[in-house]
């Protein structure tokens, strides 16, 4: 086994590899990419996917072809642009960061001259549609965070154009999907015939994976939250019973039915024929959905997030009959009254107290990212932490009116130590150059294995990482935590089975046309 990158021959001269450790798994993956067809690389966060991309690009350039590298966001594209300029031993002007801000005429000249183009998929898709970009001279297209290449996302369009030109495709991700169907859709979209997957437990990877300690913190609902949620639960079950009575709901009790089964009721209602019968079903169904969201917010997020949601319903200009009825219901109004009184008295969900205690007692000087689902939860967390003498800042997306420049400033301030706690929505999970942190806290569990892996990947890159998950007892939090853990394990099992099935398929006698074998 080689202990350096010399196995790729003269291609290695295009990479500034001095001082870079040649790891066995990287060598094997690079070899597989060069000699294989379209390749999907599944590798835990922080284990050098960018370096694998760099060597794949170097071999493409040596072969006289151009390279395309795509990333889902502009900041991540900029990160790759800087990495390639520092790692590749070529003229820096040969590497183009393509943005929509460049004038069309200038863009076309720069695209024709560049040997490597780095951009978001939307930018490349637009240039392909307008015929400003010609893929004829390209030998490889690299799709970072490739799990996004499903549905109508721009990755899919660019992948189709690359397949038409017989360009080798390389997909990079830490988490390819939650289900076999999604993974297979990804494989079909990219015409993948070669998979390289490593789990944190694999022998060649394990020495480089820093330990990540995952700790569950169980929290009681508390008396106030329990009173509010009990009232809401009784109302929900009243309307579940109505749906049960007309044959649309299999259960009468809230704890007996999953959120997925409740959503399925909506699909069944869509197929109903009788208009009066359908109207009654819709009335009860919308009632259940609105109340269920309110119930989940107060039990797992907080009293302020619950009230923010109620205020958003109250402030709607147009209210359907279900909402109008709910806002007048005496049981509902009693629950809201308890919440309003609690806020006036400074009460919140016990999770907030547990969060402050966790940080102040164990991680007060650490760099921390707290992930939460909802912007109103994030606002409250930031308020509570800052009132406790901690330094926290919200990190939210464009939907909340925050520009990309403002986002980058927040990250810069975080990196520079102006504050040490970043409270983020899903925007903090991928696609932005957020520095590695000491501690990641899930304010609530999530069921997506992709998002869970991305969140956990924010810590444990250079040192032991601490991961905490706040779980409210006897709520959906407990179910979601178990589902997430199961799906992460299932994801690796599925991708390994799919890899084996691909390996059993007959391989072409030679690499794809226009792709040279290097040894």
UniProtKB/TrEMBL annotation:
Residues 30-194 form the Helicase ATP-binding domain. Residues 354-513 form the Helicase C-terminal domain. This is ERCC4-like helicase. Transmembrane segments: none annotated. SUPFAM superfamilies: P-loop containing nucleoside triphosphate hydrolases (SSF52540). Coiled coil: none annotated. It comes from the Archaea. InterPro entries: DEAD/DEAH_box_helicase_dom (IPR011545), Helicase_ATP-bd (IPR014001), Helicase_C-like (IPR001650), P-loop_NTPase (IPR027417). GO terms for molecular function: ATP binding; catalytic activity, acting on DNA; helicase activity; hydrolase activity; nucleic acid binding. It comes from Candidatus Mancarchaeum acidiphilum. Keywords: ATP-binding, Helicase, Hydrolase, Nucleotide-binding. It holds the Pfam family DEAD.
